[in-house]
Design brief:
It is a single chain. Helix content is 27%, strand content 36%. By secondary structure, the chain is α+β, with helices and mostly antiparallel strands. The chain folds into 4 domains: 118 residues, no CATH class; 90 residues, Efflux pump adaptor protein, beta barrel domain (Elongation Factor Tu (Ef-tu), domain 3, Beta Barrel), CATH 2.40.30; 66 residues, RNA polymerase II/Efflux pump adaptor protein, barrel-sandwich hybrid domain (OB fold (Dihydrolipoamide Acetyltransferase, E2P), Beta Barrel); 88 residues. It is rod-shaped, with a radius of gyration of 45 Å. The two termini are 80 Å apart.
Length: 420
């Protein structure tokens, strides 16, 4: 019995040793995570944020000061051109018109008086000329009559100009009275109302805004700030996709209308305003909404594309790769650090046909390095324009022989970034 027990224990020990040796051998075999090279569509985009605005927004103000007497429009009210939207108390301006009318009437009466006086002085002057010619009066009397006539002409001219001035004063008073009725200058919708009945507005130095009117909300625009590093890739008429927080599951579309050359500098960061036109026939979009914009700067269909993680992967000797025999990064033109196009701030940068490398698994032996030339990228995949890879081929994206790293040049999972 003892002999059988010893034999059994020996067999168990041998089996355990064999299992341990096998497991250790398997642990020494590098393990890799792979992804296939696929064929499909690829788009390179520039992402930005912007604000939705009406294409034409009119600020309706007042040119005269006074108390708001009536309001004929409110928030969201549709208005027409020429429609009265508010009234300012006209009492003061009506009094000014009445006063100007009285002054004008007095000035015109003075002109009538001057004309009558001038006519009398003209008659006396003509009579004295005849009497002086016959020697009935002295020359001094004729001279006095002519002087009186000339003075009458001058007085008539002065009072005539004064009457015209009173006419201008009356016209100005009537204009100010008309300004007490605030008239809408365009067809549109009232976006905001900034006054209430009874509120006093003062237009002494600046024109106060009473209403903000959007002329046509069926056509809107997005004003976006695009970084100077990306503005060279943005062109007029490019397609745009965007979302708003109010409808997170819906993708809206627009078109680049204008790239404004005026720089916007905030804390030494230079951006440019890119204006995007948007169709808003269903009126779901509202002024002031924040839009998350993707400008499509390049698009290709049916291209061979490899995951960017495979282009960033760099094995070590722990992975069973003889790095001395493998060509260096510089030999294939790969940038130092393995920087690649990515989906960071810009959502995919056009690589411009640069050469990188991927590693593929062989049926037997260590992974093999394959140089490839890439084109555009959407941040997750890059177009393979040249290289000994085919659709469906598995490429290495990660090694389990070393821990995950978040940065540096040697980690297989270093965060992607654009080449500046």
């Amino acid at each position: 019995m003892m002999k059988k027990i010893l034999i059994t224990l020996g067999i168990v020990a041998l089996v355990g040793a064999g299992v341990a040796i096998y497991a250790r051998g398997r642990d020494n075999v590098p393990k890799f995570k792979t992804m296939p090279v696929v064929r499909g569509n690829l788009r390179s985009t520039v992402t930005a944020t912007g604000t939705l605005n009406a294409v034409t927004t009119v600020l309706v103000g007042t040119q005269v000061s006074g108390m708001i007497k009536k309001l004929h429009a409110d928030f969201n009210s549709p208005v027409k051109k020429g429609q009265i939207v508010a009234e300012i108390d006209p009492a003061t301006f009506e009094a000014a018109v009445d006063n100007a009318k009285a002054n004008l009437a007095e000035a015109r009466a003075m002109v009538q008086k001057d004309r009558a006086t001038l006519a009398d002085s003209t008659r006396i002057r003509d009579r004295d000329k005849k009497l002086f010619a016959k020697g009935y009066i002295a020359e001094a009397d004729l001279t006095a009559a002519e002087a009186t006539h000339d003075a009458g002409e001058a007085q008539l001219a002065a009072d005539s100009h004064n009457a015209k001035q009173m006419e201008a004063v009356l016209h100005s008073a009537e204009i100010n009275l008309a300004y007490t009725k605030i008239v809408c200058p365009v067809d549109g919708v009232v976006v905001s109302r900034n006054v209430d009945v009874g509120q006093t507005v003062a237009a002494s130095f600046t024109t106060p805004t009473l209403f903000t009117i959007a002329q046509d909300l069926t056509k809107m625009q997005i004003d976006t700030n695009v970084d100077e590093a990306d503005i060279g890739r943005v062109k007029v008429t490019q397609d745009v996709e965007f979302t708003v927080d109010a409808y997170p599951d819906r993708i809206f579309r627009g078109t680049v209308k204008q790239i404004r050359i005026a720089p916007i500098v905030v804390q030494n960061v230079v951006t440019y305003d890119v204006v995007i036109t948007v169709d808003n026939t269903d009126l779901k979009l509202m002024p002031g909404m924040t839009a998350n914009v993707s400008i499509v700067v390049a698009s290709k269909e049916g291209v061979l594309k490899a995951p960017n993680a495979a282009l960033r992967f760099r094995p070590t000797e722990k992975d069973g790769v003889n790095l001395q025999a493998a060509p260096s990064d510089k030999a294939v033109g790969r940038p130092s650090g393995g920087a690649l196009p990515s989906g960071g701030r810009t959502g995919g940068r056009q690589a411009g046909a640069r050469t990188y490398a991927v590693w593929i698994m062989q049926k037997k032996g260590a992974p093999q390095r394959v140089p490839v030339t890439i084109g555009i990228s959407d941040g997750t995949f890059s177009e393979v324009t040249k290289g000994d890879v085919r659709e469906g081929q598995e490429v290495i994206v990660e090694s389990s022989s070393r821990p995950l790293k978040t940065g540096g040049t040697g980690g297989s999972q270093s965060m992607p970034r654009f080449i500046r």
